[in-house]
Structure to design on (262 residues):
């Protein structure tokens, strides 16, 4: 008797691209699609998606954040899973939507169901799909920054390192204080630029001390912040989203380099 396929065999995943990936680094989105398809997922990118609402939410603008959240829930309700290549956005989707939309029974139930199927990309690949290795090559030494939202809200620590260990030619050298904030913090770096700069200055010192070729992380905002500081300090280092390396898609110029992101 033929086995009946279930959503868990080949689930349909709605990719939440994120604003920064869409506008600044689309290659991360393409890498995410490849990784999800390699994990036997059917991937779609809903055109109705916009911002997750986190900047408004963190700034106290609950009304606009709520409207953005309702739009996001509606755009992704038909999918088995919602996956974002960002711990920050995934944390908003999975942890804060239930509170934000909990003011009436209908939106509360929808938000809870949505949050239960929302994941960060690498966590989804390892924890849900059981991915143990990738078919990729990167000839060089890398170091890894643990972004605050991914680490502290979602418990993402071992998952990226597990997959990076399977990349042919890659050697991971841990920097000192890999778990310490880079100073970005979304609107934090705008509200408190001096404090943000002092934090990222310590981070880039640890990155440089690792004596590696490339800096990786799972959040584009953090990567842009660190790449910008490294560039201003005149330090040469490749900076990439971890999905690009795991997918073997490193043809794009690195973040912060000529031809890449500023």
């Amino acid at each position: 008797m033929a086995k009946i396929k279930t959503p868990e065999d080949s689930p349909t995943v709605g990719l939440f691209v994120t604003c920064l990936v869409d506008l600044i680094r689309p290659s991360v989105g393409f890498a995410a699609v490849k990784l999800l398809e390699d994990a036997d997922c059917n991937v779609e990118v809903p055109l109705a998606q916009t911002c997750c609402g986190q900047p408004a939410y963190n700034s106290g603008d609950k009304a606009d954040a709520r409207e953005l959240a309702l739009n996001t829930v509606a755009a992704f309700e038909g999918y088995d899973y919602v996956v974002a290549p960002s711990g920050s956005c995934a944390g908003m989707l999975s942890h804060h939507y239930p509170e934000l939309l909990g003011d009436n029974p209908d939106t509360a139930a929808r938000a809870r169901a949505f949050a239960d199927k929302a994941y960060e990309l690498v966590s989804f690949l390892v924890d849900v799909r059981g991915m143990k290795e990738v078919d990729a090559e990167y000839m060089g030494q890398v170091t890894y920054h643990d972004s605050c939202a991914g680490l502290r809200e979602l418990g993402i620590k071992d998952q990226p390192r597990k997959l990076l260990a399977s990349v042919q030619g890659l050697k991971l050298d841990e920097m000192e204080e890999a778990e310490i904030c880079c100073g970005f913090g979304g609107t934090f770096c705008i509200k408190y630029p001096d404090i943000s700069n002092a934090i990222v200055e310590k981070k880039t010192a640890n990155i440089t001390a690792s004596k590696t070729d490339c800096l990786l992380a799972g959040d584009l905002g953090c990567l842009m912040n660190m790449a910008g500081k490294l560039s201003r300090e005149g330090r040469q280092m490749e900076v990439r989203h971890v999905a690009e390396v795991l997918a073997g898609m490193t043809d794009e110029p690195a973040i912060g380099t000529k031809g890449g992101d500023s």
Notes: The radius of gyration is 18 Å. Confidence is low (pLDDT under 50) at residues 1-6. The first strand starts at residue 12 and ends at 15. The domain at 132-246 is CATH 3.40.50 (Rossmann fold).
